[in-house]
Amino acid sequence: MDGHDSEDTKQSTADMTAFVQNLLQQMQSRFQTMSDSIITKIDDMGGRINELEQSINDLRAEMGVEGTPPPASKSGDEPKTPAS
């Protein structure tokens, strides 16, 4: 019976390995789908931001404020507060 138990253990190990590999493949597929979706949404948002910036610049031009430079879009810029 020792040989029979050994075969059952090998089969059980093979089944578990196949199950884990399948689970990992499913997780990878879902992760890739979510990643692609997020990237698409970020790209769409970037396009909308560009359209919004263009609309703001068009409105400023219509109002005659064209001479003022657009605000800097650097992340390091902080609003200036008056000195006390």
Shape: rod-shaped
Largest sheet: none
Class derived from helix and strand content: mainly alpha
- Beta-strand content estimate: under 5%
Low-confidence stretches: none
Radius of gyration based on Cα positions: 30 Å
Percent helix among the residues? Answer: over 70%
Output mean pLDDT: 84
Separation of termini? 90 Å
H and E order: H
Record field, number of beta strands: 0
Tally of DSSP helical segments:
1
Break the fold down into its secondary structure elements and pairings.
Blueprint: H1 2-63
Q: How would you describe the overall organization of this protein?
A:
With 84 residues, the chain is mostly helical. It has a domain at 32-61. The chain is 74% helix and 0% strand.
Quick description:
It comes from Brassica oleracea var. oleracea. InterPro entries: HS1-bd. This protein has 84 residues and is mainly alpha-helical.
What attributes characterize this protein structure?
single chain; 84 residues; 74% helix; 0% strand
